[in-house]
Amino acid sequence: MARSARAGRLAPPSWLAEGLRPHPAAIPWAAVARASAGLATPLAVGMAAGRPAYGALASMGALSAVIGDTADAYRMRLFNIAVPQLFGALGVTLGTLVFGQGWTAVTVVTAVALVSGMISSIGAVASASGLLLLLNAVVGAGLPMPSPWWKPPLLLALGGLVVLVLALFGWPLRGGVPERSAVAGTYRSVAGFLEAAGGPAHDERRQAVTLSLNRSYDLLLSHRTRRHGRSPALARLTAQLNAVIPLVEAASSAKLRPASLGPLSPAYPAAARRLADAVERGSAGRRPPATALPGRSSPVLDLPPPTGPTERAVDRALRYAAEVMQEDTPDPFGATDRLGRPAELRIRARRTARAALVSEASWRYGLRIALCIGLAQALVSVIAVPRSYWVTLTVTFVMKPDFGSVFSRAVLRALGTAAGLLIAIPVLAEVPRGWWDVPTLALLAALVPAFSAKGYAFQTAAITPVILLLSDQLNHQGFQLVLPRLYDSLIGCAISLVAGYLLWPESWHTRIGDRLADAVADTAAYVSLAFATAPGRDHPARLRHRRRLYRDLSAVRSEFQRALTEPPPTGALAAAWWPLVIAVERIVEATTATRVRADHGVPAPPAAEVAEITRELDDLAGALRTGKAVPGGADEGAGPNGAGAPGAAGGPDGEEGVLDPLRREVRAARAIAAPAPG
Question: pTM to 2 decimals?
Fold first, then answer.
């Protein structure tokens, strides 16, 4: 017993254990091969030309491209690699021009850090561009670079180009395959959702559907404004993805079926999987013979006769999706576009620029990272101590504001660097310098994508020996690099914790409650909008609001999951609010399911009851913002039908009132918030 208690006291805290637990991700073997070849080839060319320093710089550019190669679609790979490389070239140019210039270097690198932090809120590509801009500016200001000034950016860009060519090598043969696979994967996730309807895995499968929809829409809409009107294949895939929305809503309504009816027929998820196979094969859009058109006798959709509102909704949604798939040339801007089109590129660019320049959060992140970078750069540029660019490099990785918790990243960075140094020690001590560096780099580079899939600490452990091996080609310090780099990493982590975490109250006085309150208020608006039209009439605004709300809730879930990795009080507060996040997701789903059932035979709810539920959600949002007690509502006896009483409108076959499931979810959410966690 004493040994068990002692082991419990020595165990790491939950937030640290969560960060050190490897993610259950498969090894991306194609990325492993690209990383190995992409980093080793430039160094080998540099060795053959008698310019190993040039090869090392090109390999550094290749490393940046390997880290940024996270997209599936080839078009997105092009942007994810090429655009950040341009910013990286600018960064190393600025850093090289101020190398060894003391306060001038501090001023320039700090200004670059401010810009890097401010543009991180624009999007994924802008965030990667900001990181590479700052990262290469730090490297250029801290390492001796070949002259003249244009050589370092050119060499870095050439290394990135090698990885880009390798990443796009299969585009002529596999163009469109990632997009089709993503849409087909969404149909398969909906099939799993149908199988789990009403069971213990229902909420988990619903979340998987949300993530799959987010990924598919990001993949298709990322280049839609440029190609949608000219690409029939893209228009068809977008129409097929839009067609899955009614099926998702119908699957949500399956949770409300009476238990006495048993589970849904397995024919429904089987039909969804057949549609997924058609999408992935690319056969959708090829009209089959007349005998195979959608219908009950169709070999594509062999569906049983519907017996209730849920079955009617699922049946209709599956047949609608099959009809869309058989369209030869769907209108990209027609009625099948259920979720609306993105704004024009110039309008979105103007909005993005305004958000980056005016947003309080943008300035706060920019100033925060600039303060830390300025302190680190002053330490390595002005104060006469044997420190290196590695201090500022550590701050750059830890303080990237859109990458998660600063505190946990600082701790994980220190642990990952220590593990990476253990790998680097035998490499720098035993491997002879020269041509042996090429196979060694190929082996170490292969670890980067393999370890990156497991978590931040593992990624750091893989990147550290690669950077040390390449930087040794520039400063020729060999094994003497190891211990100073550990000290530098610890100093950088300490700067990040003090100047980037403790001095900023929002770091440890989290605003996740405000974010959750906004989600509840948006949910109230969705409830009101869901029943604003008569049953049977589709409302595009409702569909767009629901899709946006689910995406926002997915972002809230991710934000809370990051907050759970923070030490107390932030982590404890996030844990207290976590059940409410799940409750809000269930309210949105119950609203959608109620609307779907009203569209397929269940009586529509009275407007007064809808208004009462909307008011209760607004009260809950207000209580979350102010920290006051939740006002009394239908769960305390208010409302048209008394406390928790069934609604006036009942369903067929002895079912409960149409709004009763929604009332229960709202009542559960209010009960969770009643103690006012935190």
Answer: 0.75
